[in-house]
């Protein structure tokens, strides 16, 4: 039993850690696309936010200041995206790609110009990082057989942004399905004409959706550079924005499925890490490292083809809203 | 009801220009409370523009609007809503995946959280349902509702927002006579409550039946205002098109030829897996127009799709000249002489973003006629072909390189008809041939179909416009809930009986 | 004491060369990682800077960002008369082969690979020897009997590091368990510190208490995770002990900086050497770093065993297997 | 406000203005980095077109971009967003390399090169067709599957290069040199020294072929119908699923053109990551080129010039971080692509008046 826990608890804890930024980014995409604006610029916004967070935290010594800066930086890019897509009705995909390229270049350029450390920011210590938060009453809970250890080991000891990510899932579900704003936002992604006819500004809602995406990507970026990592280095988001985009589609643009999908990715990843170098039973030698590394992606494709139904995007996503004559 | 009270709506000299088109030219309109006011005119007469201005969709270039005698400016739909002006659009402004109650609340949620507002909306829906007979399940998804119910949702939406002035744009286009009657009953009840109702339509029969006053528009101008009781359909028709309309014809009895298309026990499911056609059999003869009457959503769409090769049927057979053609795709069927004018122009009939000449070969794109060396498609040949079609069929503007979406509905439809009839197919499937087409266009299209029949061709006509079915069909089949529930001879069809059959009320 | 000889030789060249100093215009073409990668390329950069400071001779630099730029950059420098030109990394081999043949009068240096041309100095390192010492230190410092290795990508060079590391660890503790993880298969594998951190944590959770990385930018995450967990990391290429003082056991040094400076100094003295140079422990080309940042971690016993091992390797009494000789590693 | 602009203004003036604005903002970034914008722009211009060498390199990079852009564009024309050009190019390169390694010493040079190009295209096509099939028959969103397939291709390539195809005794995970390759254009009198090779005319041919296929064949007509109005496809008797699979296959084959240019035309061996991100840039190239072959070629030239000019810029101004070039690229994509309508309203007022 203990042996099983030894194996399972760290894997589950890793699952939560790996999933957290994906959840934040996927929820970001969720808000943007629910409002009718496709967002392939999640990666760029996260990266720029990661830079802003680490740079600000390094200078001020405060992770919270870093988080604030990350949100501002990411939102600034989101504002560009909204201006291009909503006001100018430009191509949403091009705008997203432009933001990815721009963010990669700008973050490294600024980092180099400001810190002269090869595009990295100085390593963060102490209050400049989000430290793991132990579960309140952990030593007491841990006494509970089985469950206690599971709870303390898996749920406890994560940094603030991880908890924020998980808290945001029910919040997003609540906002989208239980509030006036959510109703209008979703309507905007399905039939902006109806929203307009109801006397509500489509542009304002879409700006809101895209800006929320900016804020969430900001938190995700800060999580990457000031909680999970402890400094910024160029291109450190390493494609997570695209994985989040995939997760969003698998989850059919819904918050709870986003949670399960991202946890699924996280779990596959955590298991794959463990499987590296482990001899295959009966074969005696391990699978090639590359096969293990490709495993999460192969499984995703198989799952998608075999079990998950057709994804139905918000109908108006990607289409600039033009009043009909 | 005329009194000293100022009119609910008064428009003075409204002018609106789109580019070089003068859509509204110094238009005046007075609508009183407690009245149903018809605004009639052909497509493009400027009715919709005027209503869009009233509803704040876009601003007028000049002119003023008075509500209850006070001058107002209506900058957006929210302004209109504050003034109690609500509109039921021809293309419903509903969010299809949403529930009815969500649609009703949208824009009038009554607070940041939905919980309270939703309870309120439910109560209001219940009350309105009782008051006006507007029953809809508040938890049904709009995409699952038939058209008539969707329209009720639109009206409920407007009432829920406290509409004092209700604008309805071509509301009966998709309704059965019974549903239309229901609608008119609701409208009268609303009028009696003191609301002002503006009914935009081109159907003179409706105007005569339900309105108190009527205003006629033509070419962007307001050409006449009449008390309904003091005018006639004939006069209105003349005012509308500026000349005396051709007398409505009933088809002369025909002598049908041999059976050419046979459908046997056809069953079809829609994309959601719902069985929409439940065992339909029918026979179509050369030299006949067979009309399929029915309320939208009763399976006629899927029937047409299955026969035309767009959708594989679940079971059953379709034969053309005795040969089974079930499961063949639309291109193969066209080669066999079965052409199809689809119900939904913009979704199926043409490609809105293609140039008109490219839309003019949709379905015939593989034809060697526009190939050149190496079998490549010659742009010039395609263009020349479209130019000829446009010329011969009076498609305006006759610009083959113009984007398809920039043509008016009537001209789009003419182009599609021209395309499908050009190869003289033995069987023509036609769905809603005149939807959104103005009166002049309707006449032309009807005449073409009649000519087609005279030439010994067979036409299967699906339409929700009863007038159209009656005007064209040699025989009428009524479809209800995926089944053929009755057959009537064309010339002598009893409209009342037809209506009852369409509503599923009589076997 | 051969490393002293090497240093002395350098000093002699430097001082002796003043009189006969040639006008040289040295240049460096970095690999994709870029001059500020905190490890391999940065060490070359540092070597160039040291030379520049000492002699006042400017060193031109270029960072490639795409494959075809390698050849382009080398040719650009060569055409402008730069010499010697240092090409950093094995990936530059075929580009250098082409360009060096075009410019027989220009001198070139390639790190980590061999180009058999009369105007090229090929510098190879015995990474396995340095890694061996790192492995020994890891095994000595480990209390759990489990240590870890995080590589960037599963390529021969990284396997060479890993193989030496495991050999060294086993030499100290034949029963020691070594976890090995590779980061990924895309270029992102070299700059994903978050994933590096995850890999390290996974090893720590399995009991590893010393983790050696050879993963470029990803490695900063490995060292960070080790430090956060109160375990020890081992740096690579450059001295990374200062990144987390007291939490980095040591760094496996690969003295590309020395090799670079030396090549420039030779050229300046008119004594540029072409052909193959293999730098191992005996040439002080590889090693492990001891400084004030890890002084508290290194016991006297550790230090003496390392010195002893180094001496034995230098003397040829102990042979560290080089993965590259037969593409396999005798230990796992 | 949405009056249509004259064609020349729409196709030339507007993009030119946007490009100018992009360069203007880039100049500000350069200034912020403490360098002279004028010198930087000059270095960029001379670096990309200032000599025959530079022109050659610009064209070489543009060849990659053209193939990538065409690959993305043809998928877009069928309504598919192919993010998998990177992976398709990699697998195309693998197919190409296998033929070269197996046959380059036994068959005549011309024949083996043709076979290799064909094998590359075939491999790329197959790797593109799988996500196409999954989309058409299983409903798996092509965006997800192509992202996943990029990772899978990268893993496969590393495995094969490290364990199977590596030249024995070598450090670099790359194959041995091919005995033959595509001849450089300098063999045909193109001046200067650059890797621009026969893949460039091949790219032009591919663009022409794409244009003919998509705009001048009934099949391509069907492809465009599926892309712009899938509902109408059934009406016109067009098999949507088969078009999707075929479009992805062609997209993959075009992606393999990157491998032809890089591996057969320049590197003469299979190496890791030879695409250098061209597959992603191709998305911007395609969209800026409005998914039309002519537009794609122009956009490819622009991006080729930025890649080459950027490299020269780094030479001339070593203190400018190399990532500055990415900033310029991002700004160009942003201003000429997404913010393309910025000047539309004022311009139409100006020209309409």
TrEMBL record, chain A:
GO terms for cellular component: plasma membrane. GO terms for molecular function: transmembrane transporter activity. The chain crosses the membrane at residues 12-32, 44-64, 97-115, 150-177, 207-226, 232-251, 258-275, 287-308. Pfam families: BPD_transp_2 (PF02653). It is a multi-pass membrane protein. It is found in: Cell membrane. Its main location: membrane. This is Sugar ABC transporter permease. The lineage of its organism: Bacteria, Pseudomonadati, Pseudomonadota, Alphaproteobacteria, Acetobacterales.
UniProtKB/TrEMBL annotation, chain B:
Keywords: ATP-binding, Cell membrane, Membrane, Nucleotide-binding, Repeat, Sugar transport, Translocase, Transport. It is found in: Cell membrane. Residues 9-244, 261-506 form the ABC transporter domain. Its main location: membrane. InterPro entries: AAA+_ATPase, ABC_carbohydrate_import_ATPase, ABC_transporter-like_ATP-bd, ABC_transporter-like_CS, P-loop_NTPase. SUPFAM superfamilies: P-loop containing nucleoside triphosphate hydrolases (SSF52540). One of its GO terms (cellular component) is plasma membrane. It is a peripheral membrane protein. GO terms for molecular function: ATP binding; ATP hydrolysis activity. PROSITE patterns: ABC_TRANSPORTER_1, ABC_TRANSPORTER_2. PANTHER family: CARBOHYDRATE TRANSPORT ATP-BINDING PROTEIN MG119-RELATED (PTHR43790), GUANOSINE IMPORT ATP-BINDING PROTEIN NUPO (PTHR43790:SF4). This is Heme ABC transporter ATP-binding protein.
TrEMBL record, chain C:
It is a lipid-anchor. The keyword Transcription regulation does not apply. One of its GO terms (cellular component) is plasma membrane. Residues 27-309 form the ABC transporter substrate-binding protein PnrA-like domain. Pfam families: Bmp. InterPro entries: BMP_lipoprotein, Peripla_BP_I, PnrA-like. It comes from the Bacteria. Keywords: Cell membrane, Lipoprotein, Membrane, Signal. It is found in: Cell membrane. The keyword Electron transport does not apply. Gene3D superfamilies: 3.40.50.2300. Residues 1-20 form the signal peptide. Belongs to the BMP lipoprotein family. This is BMP family ABC transporter substrate-binding protein. It comes from Falsiroseomonas bella.
From TrEMBL, chain D:
The keyword Membrane applies. Its main location: membrane. Keywords: Cell membrane, Membrane, Transmembrane, Transmembrane helix. GO terms for molecular function: transmembrane transporter activity. It is found in: Cell membrane. CDD domains: TM_PBP1_transp_TpRbsC_like (cd06580). The chain crosses the membrane at residues 12-34, 54-76, 83-103, 109-130, 142-166, 198-215, 244-264, 270-289, 296-315, 327-347. GO terms for cellular component: plasma membrane. The keyword Cell membrane applies. It is a multi-pass membrane protein. This is Sugar ABC transporter permease. It comes from Falsiroseomonas bella.
């Amino acid at each position: 039993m203990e042996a099983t826990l030894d194996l399972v608890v760290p894997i589950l804890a890793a699952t939560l850690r790996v999933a957290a930024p994906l959840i934040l980014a996927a929820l970001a995409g969720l808000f943007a696309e629910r409002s009718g604006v496709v967002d392939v610029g999640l990666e760029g916004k996260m990266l720029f936010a990661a830079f802003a967070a680490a740079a600000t935290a390094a200078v001020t010594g405060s992770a919270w200041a870093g988080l604030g800066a990350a949100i501002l930086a990411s939102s600034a890019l989101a504002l560009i995206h909204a201006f291009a897509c909503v006001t100018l009705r430009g191509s949403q995909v091009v705008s997203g790609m432009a933001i990815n390229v721009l963010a990669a270049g700008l973050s490294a350029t600024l980092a180099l110009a400001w810190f002269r450390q090869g595009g990295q920011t100085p390593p963060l210590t102490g209050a400049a990082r989000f430290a793991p938060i132990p579960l309140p009453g952990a030593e007491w809970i841990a006494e509970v057989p089985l469950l206690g250890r599971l709870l303390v080991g898996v749920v406890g000891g994560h940094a603030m942004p991880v908890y924020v990510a998980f808290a945001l899932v029910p919040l997003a579900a609540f906002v989208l399905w239980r509030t006036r704003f959510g109703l209008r936002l979703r309507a905007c992604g399905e039939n902006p004409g109806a929203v307009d006819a109801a006397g509500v500004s489509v542009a304002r809602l879409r700006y809101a959706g895209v800006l929320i995406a900016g804020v969430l990507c900001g938190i995700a970026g800060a999580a990457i550079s000031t909680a999970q990592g402890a400094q910024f280095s160029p291109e450190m988001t390493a494609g997570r924005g695209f994985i989040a985009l995939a997760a969003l589609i698998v989850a059919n643009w819904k918050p709870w499925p986003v949670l399960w999908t991202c946890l699924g990715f996280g779990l596959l990843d955590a298991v794959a890490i463990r499987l590296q170098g482990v001899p295959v039973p009966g074969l005696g030698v391990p699978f090639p490292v590359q096969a293990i590394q490709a495993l999460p992606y192969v499984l995703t494709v198989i799952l998608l083809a075999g079990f998950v139904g057709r994804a139905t995007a918000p109908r108006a996503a990607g289409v600039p809203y033009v009043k009909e004559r | 009801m005329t009194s000293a009270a100022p009119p609910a709506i008064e428009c003075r000299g409204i002018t609106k220009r789109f580019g070089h088109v003068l859509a509204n030219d110094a238009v005046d309109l007075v609508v009183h409370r407690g009245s149903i006011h018809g605004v009639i005119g052909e497509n493009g007469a400027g009715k919709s523009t005027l209503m869009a201005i009233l509803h704040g969709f876009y601003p007028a270039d000049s002119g003023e609007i008075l509500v209850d005698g006070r001058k107002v400016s209506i900058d957006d739909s929210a302004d209109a809503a504050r003034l109690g002006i609500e509109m039921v659009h021809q293309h419903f402004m509903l969010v299809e995946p949403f529930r009815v109650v969500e649609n009703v609340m949208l824009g009038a949620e009554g607070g940041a959280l939905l919980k309270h507002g939703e309870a309120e909306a439910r109560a209001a829906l219940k009350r309105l349902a009782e008051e006006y007979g507007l029953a809809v399940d508040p938890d049904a998804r709009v995409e699952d509702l038939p058209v008539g119910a969707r329209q009720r949702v639109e009206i409920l939406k407007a009432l829920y927002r406290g509409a004092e002035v209700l604008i309805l744009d071509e509301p009966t286009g998709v309704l059965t006579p019974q549903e239309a009657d229901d609608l008119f009953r609701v409208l009268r009840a609303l009028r009696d409550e003191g609301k002002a109702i503006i009914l935009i339509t081109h159907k003179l029969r409706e105007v005569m039946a339900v309105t108190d006053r009527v205003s006629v528009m033509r070419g962007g101008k307001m050409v006449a205002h009449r008390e309904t009781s003091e005018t006639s359909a004939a006069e209105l028709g003349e005012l509308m098109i500026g000349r005396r309309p051709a007398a409505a014809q009933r088809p002369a009895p025909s002598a049908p030829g041999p059976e050419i298309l046979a459908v046997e026990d056809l069953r079809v499911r829609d994309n959601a897996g719902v069985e929409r056609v439940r065992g339909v059999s029918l026979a179509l003869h050369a030299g006949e127009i067979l009309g399929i009457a029915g309320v939208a959503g009763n399976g006629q769409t899927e029937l047409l799709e299955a026969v035309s090769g767009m959708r594989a049927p679940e079971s059953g057979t379709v034969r053309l000249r005795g040969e089974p053609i079930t499961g063949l795709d639309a291109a193969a069927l066209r080669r066999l002489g079965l052409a199809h004018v689809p119900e939904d122009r913009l979704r199926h009939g043409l490609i809105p973003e293609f140039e008109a000449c490219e839309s003019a070969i949709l379905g015939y794109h593989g034809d060697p006629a526009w190939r050149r060396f190496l079998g490549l498609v010659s742009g010039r040949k395609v263009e020349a072909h479209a130019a000829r079609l446009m010329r011969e069929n009076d498609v305006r503007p006759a610009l083959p390189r113009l984007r398809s979406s920039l043509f008016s509905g009537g001209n789009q439809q003419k182009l599609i008809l021209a395309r499908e009839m050009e190869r003289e197919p033995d069987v023509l499937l036609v769905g809603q041939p005149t939807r959104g087409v103005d009166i002049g266009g309707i006449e032309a299209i009807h005449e073409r179909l009649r000519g087609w029949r005279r030439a010994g061709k067979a036409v299967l006509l699906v339409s929700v416009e009863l007038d159209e079915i009656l005007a064209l069909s040699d025989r009428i089949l009524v479809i209800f809930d995926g089944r053929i529930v009755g057959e009537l001879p064309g010339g002598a069809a009893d409209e009342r009986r037809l209506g009852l059959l369409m509503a599923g009320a009589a076997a | 004491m051969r490393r002293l000889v090497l240093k002395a030789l350098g000093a002699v060249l430097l001082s002796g060369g003043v009189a006969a100093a040639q006008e040289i215009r040295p240049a460096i073409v970095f690999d994709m990682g870029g001059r500020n990668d905190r490890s391999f390329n940065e060490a070359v950069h540092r070597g160039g800077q040291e030379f520049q400071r000492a002699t006042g001779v400017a060193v031109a630099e270029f960072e490639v960002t795409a494959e075809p730029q390698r050849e382009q950059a080398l040719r650009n420098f060569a055409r402008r008369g730069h010499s010697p030109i240092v090409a950093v990394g094995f990936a530059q081999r075929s580009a250098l082969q082409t360009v060096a043949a075009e410019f027989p009068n220009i001198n070139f240096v390639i790190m980590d690979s061999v180009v058999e041309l009369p105007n090229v100095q090929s510098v190879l390192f015995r990474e396995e020897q340095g890694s061996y010492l790192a492995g020994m230190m890891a095994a000595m410092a480990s209390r759990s009997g489990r240590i870890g290795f995080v590589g960037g990508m599963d390529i021969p060079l990284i396997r060479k590091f890993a193989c030496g590391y495991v050999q060294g660890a086993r030499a100290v503790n034949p029963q020691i368990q070594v976890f090995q993880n590779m980061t990924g298969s895309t270029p992102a594998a070299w700059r994903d510190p978050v994933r590096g951190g995850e890999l390290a944590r996974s090893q720590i959770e399995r009991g590893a208490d010393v983790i050696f990385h050879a993963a470029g930018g990803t490695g900063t995450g490995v060292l960070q995770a080790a430090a956060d967990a109160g375990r020890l990391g081992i740096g690579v290429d450059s001295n990374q002990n200062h990144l987390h003082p007291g939490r980095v056991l040591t760094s496996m040094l690969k003295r590309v900086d020395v090799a670079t400076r030396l090549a420039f100094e030779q050229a300046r003295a008119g004594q540029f050497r072409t052909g193959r140079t293999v730098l191992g422990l005996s040439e002080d080309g590889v090693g492990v770093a001891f400084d004030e940042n890890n002084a508290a971690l290194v016991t006297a016993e550790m230090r003496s065993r390392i010195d002893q091992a180094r001496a034995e390797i230098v003397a040829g009494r102990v042979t560290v297997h080089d993965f590259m000789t037969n593409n396999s590693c005798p230990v796992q | 406000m949405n009056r249509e602009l004259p064609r020349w203004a729409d196709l030339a003036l507007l993009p030119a203005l946007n490009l100018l604005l992009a360069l203007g903002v880039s100049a500000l970034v350069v200034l912020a980095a403490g360098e002279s914008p004028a010198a930087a722009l000059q270095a960029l211009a001379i670096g990309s077109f200032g000599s025959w060498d530079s022109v050659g390199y610009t064209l070489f990079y543009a060849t990659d971009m053209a193939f990538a852009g065409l690959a993305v564009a043809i998928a877009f024309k069928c309504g598919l967003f192919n993010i998998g050009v990177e992976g398709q190019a990699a697998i195309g390169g693998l197919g190409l390399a296998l033929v070269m390694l197996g046959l380059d010493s036994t068959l005549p040079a011309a024949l083996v090169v043709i076979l290799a190009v064909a094998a590359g295209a075939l491999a790329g096509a197959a790797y593109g067709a799988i996500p196409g099939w999954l989309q058409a028959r299983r409903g798996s969103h092509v965006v997800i599957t192509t992202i996943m397939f990029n990772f899978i291709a990268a893993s496969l390539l590393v495995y094969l290069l490290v364990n199977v195809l590596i030249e024995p005794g070598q450090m670099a995970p790359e194959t041995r040199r091919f005995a033959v390759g595509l001849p450089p254009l300098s063999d045909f009198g193109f001046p200067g020294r650059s890797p621009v090779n026969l893949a460039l005319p091949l790219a032009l041919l591919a663009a022409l072929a794409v244009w003919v296929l998509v705009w001048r064949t009934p099949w391509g007509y069907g492809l465009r119908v599926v892309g712009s109005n899938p509902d109408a496809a059934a009406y016109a008797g067009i098999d949507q699923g088969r078009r999707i699979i075929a479009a992805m296959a062609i997209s993959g084959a075009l992606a393999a053109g990157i491998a032809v240019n890089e591996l057969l035309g320049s590197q003469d061996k299979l190496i890791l990551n030879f695409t250098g991100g061209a597959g992603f840039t191709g998305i911007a190239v395609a969209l800026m080129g409005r998914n039309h072959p002519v537009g794609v070629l122009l956009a490819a030239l622009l991006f080729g010039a930025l890649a080459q000019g950027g490299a020269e810029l780094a030479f001339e101004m070593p203190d400018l971080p190399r990532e500055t070039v990415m900033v310029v690229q991002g700004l160009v994509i942003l201003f000429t692509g997404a913010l393309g309508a910025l000047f539309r309203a004022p311009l139409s007022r100006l020209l309409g008046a």
